[in-house]
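#lab-general

N.A. 3:47 PM
ok so I finally got the sequence cleaned up, no stray characters, all 365 residues accounted for. can someone with queue access submit it? mine expired

B.Y. 3:52 PM
send it over

N.A. 3:53 PM
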Amino acid sequence: MKKIILFFCIVFAAKGVIAQFETYTITGKVIDAATKLPLQAASVFAQNTTIGTATDQQGVFTLRLQNGGYDLIITFTGYQTATRRITTADALDKNIVIEVAQKEKALEDVVIKSSNEVKDGLEKYGGFFEENFIGKTANSSQCVIKNKDVLHFFFSKKKNRLKVSATEPLEIENMALGYAIKYTLDSFTHEYGTELNTYSGYPLFKDLQPADETQKATWYSNRLKAYQGSMLHFMRSVHDKKIKEEGFEIQLVAKANEIETAIPVEDFYGAINYTKNDSTQVVDISPNQPNMAVLYNRQAPDPAYLLATGDVARKFQLSILTIATDQLIGIEQNGYFFDQNDIVINGYWTWQKVADVLPYDFRPQ
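B.Y. 4:20 PM
back already:
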C-alpha cells in the first residue's frame, strides 16, 4: 500500500512511519536437530517472494518482509526441508530457533530401490510434466526449466499414478514476467483415473535484469495482467473488503438432488462470514456453502482455456473454491492464506500455473 506525502516539510518523518508500518524484521537461528549446533550457509527464504538469505557462522539469519504472513522455508544440503509459518507478530520474538533434521540416507536408498522409477522418464513424461506444472498459457512459452536432469519420474501401474520428484531445486527462467525461480519441488502427482493434478513446493523468486526500459515495461505489463483476477488478487481484495471494487463477484453453489445451482449474493462479506482481528489484521472467512464461485469480470479468459474447455462464449473468468464446512481460512494483509489443506480449486485458477505465479511482494503500481 502506497502513501502520498502531501507536504515537503514532513517527508523525512513520514518515511520513517511508513517503513515501520509496512515492513517488519524476522531474526532467528538455524541449528542441527540432533547436535543443536548452528548451521552456517543454510538457505532461509519466505516462500513465494523475492526475499531470502543465508545463515552466518552462528546460524543466524535476518529477513525484512512486507507486513503479512509467509511460510518460512529452510533448506540445507543433506537435511530435510523445514517450514514455519510467520506473521508480523513474530517480529517481537527475538529467540526464534529452527531445528532441521538430517535426511535418513539408508531409508532414501530403500525407497529409491523399491520405487517404480521410469528410466527414460524425462523423455516419456517431461513434456506432460511441463504442461501441468509450468502451464499452457501464453507466458508458459517463455518459461523454461534449465536443469531438467534433476527430475525423476515414477509410475505405478497398480494405482495408475505418475509421481515426479527433484533431487535439487528446479531452476526456472520466466522471460515473460522477468523472474528467475528456484523451486524446491516437494511433490507432483497426476492421477490418470481422475485426471487430477496435485503439486506442492517452495518457490523463491529473483528479479531478472531487463535489457532496456522497453523490456522492463513489458515485464511489468505482463505481471499486471497475470495479477488481475488471480487468486492472490482475490485474497487481497477479500482482506481489504474491496471485492466488488476490484472486479470480483462471489456466488454460492448449492447442491440439491445432484444438481448444482449458483446463488448470487448481495452481501459478499456476510456470505463468507467475514471477520477481522484488528490487532493482528488477519481476516477469517467461512463461506455459508462449501462451494463458492469466484467471478472476475474485468478480464476475459485466455482463448486457449476457452478452447480447451469448450466454453468459447464465456466472457469472464470463473473459478470454484471448495472449502470444508468446519474450516476457517485465514488471510493476511499480503494475500497469504493459511489453514488451506482442505481447499480444492477448480476452474480458471487451475489454468494459471507456475508460469503465471507472482511473488507476494508484487504490488500493482
